[in-house]
Amino acid sequence: MIDHSLFPSNSGKAGTIWPALRAGIRRLDWAALAAFVLPLLLYRQTLAPTIYNLDSAEFTTAVATNGLVRATGYPLYLALGKLWTWLPLSADMGYQLNLFSAVCGAATIFLADRILRRLHVRAWARLGALGLLAAAPYFWSLSLVAEVYTLHTAMMASVILALLRWADAPSPARLALPVLLMTLSLGNHAATVLLVPGCIWFVLTRHPRQLADWRVWLAGSAGIILGAAVFMTLPLRYGQQPAFNYAGVYDAHGRFVPVNLQTAEGLVWLLTGESFSGQMFGYSWAEVGGQVGAYGRQLGLAFLGIGLGPGVAGLFVLLRRDWRLGGLLLLMFIANAIFYINYRVIDKNTMYLPTYLIWALWLGVGCQVLLDLWDSAAGRVWALRGVLLTAVLLAVSSNWHLVDLSADWSTREQSEAILSEVEPNALVLGWWDTIPAIQYLQLVEGQRPDVLAVNRFLISGEDMNALILQEIDRRPVYINNPSIELLGVARATAVGPLYRLESRE
Fold first, then answer.
1. 3-state percent breakdown (helix, strand, coil) of the chain, nearest 5
2. Which fold, 410-503?
3. 4, 199, 230, 345: most buried, per Cβ within 10 A?
4. What is the pLDDT of residue 27?
């Protein structure tokens, strides 16, 4: 006879599943889920719908074609971006990689939330600090287009979190993880090196005896070797002779001369950003003061001004409570601020995001201090919570119109207009705002492959003029902005956003 007790009925099964499901829902960390989902929804609503200009178009085209970008190569971004494109999310490669930046931006907020939890910062303080970070104009805007910066902050936050986990329970394996993450992060952005002094400080002051253990050095070396493997993708890409390659220059005959990335010299040239070395610490002492002031104003704008005081308070409180961790964050902040304040590029405002992340952590600690001070008076605590929530909502509402790219098709429209207007077999010379997007349409979508598009950044002024004079009687030549010198030997006729050049002879 069969013992039916061995086979529970469906009703019994349902009776056990639903309570378990309800218990699982109750255990779900809704605050952690919100720290990722809410920023992602915000960024999704304001996301650029297709390719965007400047560096964004360059990265999109390189990822889509397995190509190469300018210094410093960004191999981690190219690799992760390629993996991301395998997901069936959109037929528009530009949109898909824009969404990747949004996910990285939301991941940064999530990881920062985990860090603040380890610092015993409660939900309302985390909401205020991280809500302002998520809605900060530059952080928000760089979460909407294909760029490396939100991946950089996500990697930075993961390094800090991994160091905190090691500090709580030191072991060789746990120390190897931040080493691995740091090395990988270098493959996304060379500015990761600015985190090194703070990390060394933290390790030396938290558990210095660990460094006497040979297993720590072995695990750390393994982390470096594994992380450095991402750099080997660059010689492999070079060997495939990609159609899109910005690691090189054009000569006076319009021929692209790539840097040989299968040699040590060529690889070092790309990874160290030698072509940008003249812009590092490129301000005079008289100019530095103005740059410091400009950064201070930008930081105040990012955190609505009201986040500056509590941020400073959080810095000093953290230094007092845990001087080792406080020193880690302070050294990271100082290194990034000093370098970029002195970095002479027009778009450096986008590069301050690592300092935003650190400030948000300080702000979270500062807000928690304020909440603790008022904890004895419930009415005042709720008033402060209301201020934090209002500040976040104000930041979202006031910055939305500044950053919203959801209806911005201008890059695609301009590039398609150029390709439709230029004559067959034309030579088109332009800057970042036109050429990478044109090459995207050519190489990814197959539009007008007969047109030769040359980024003026990759050709010297002398060689460009020689190329124009060589080609002007052979083929149609277009340029975005002819120089006075060029106008002396050629006539320029406006054609949309470009000028058609013709010989004066």
1. 70, 5, 25
2. D-Maltodextrin-Binding Protein; domain 2 (3.40.190)
3. 230
4. 60
Cβ atoms of 419 and 443 within 8 Å: the answer is no
Kindly report the average pLDDT of the chain as a whole number.
89
- Closest C-alpha among 271, 231, 246, 348 to residue 72: 271
Counting every residue, how long is the chain?
A: 505
**Using CA atoms in the order 92, 96, 97, 103, what is the torsion angle rounded to 10 degrees?**
160
pLDDT in tens, 287-310: 788 888 888 999 999 998 889 999
Which letter does DSSP use for residue 432 in this model? T
State pLDDT tens for residues 326-362.
999 999 999 999 988 887 777 778 889 999 999 999 9
Task: Name the phi and psi angles at 258, rounded to 5.
Answer: -75, 150
Question: What tens digit of pLDDT does each residue of 433-448 get?
Answer: 899 999 999 999 999 9
DSSP H helices, 194-240, are 196-206, 214-228, 233-239
Q: Per-domain residue ranges for the chain?
A: 30-233+277-403, 410-503
Q: Which one has a higher pLDDT value, 483 or 300?
A: 300
Task: Name the nearest CA neighbour of 239 among 279, 200, 266, 203.
Answer: 266
How far is Cα of residue 92 from the mean position of the Cα atoms in its chain? Answer: 20
How is residue 117 written in tokens?
A: 């939890």
Confidence at 9, pLDDT banded by 50, 70, 90: very low
- Straight-line distance from the first to the last Cα atom of the chain, in angstroms, rounded to the nearest whole number: 108
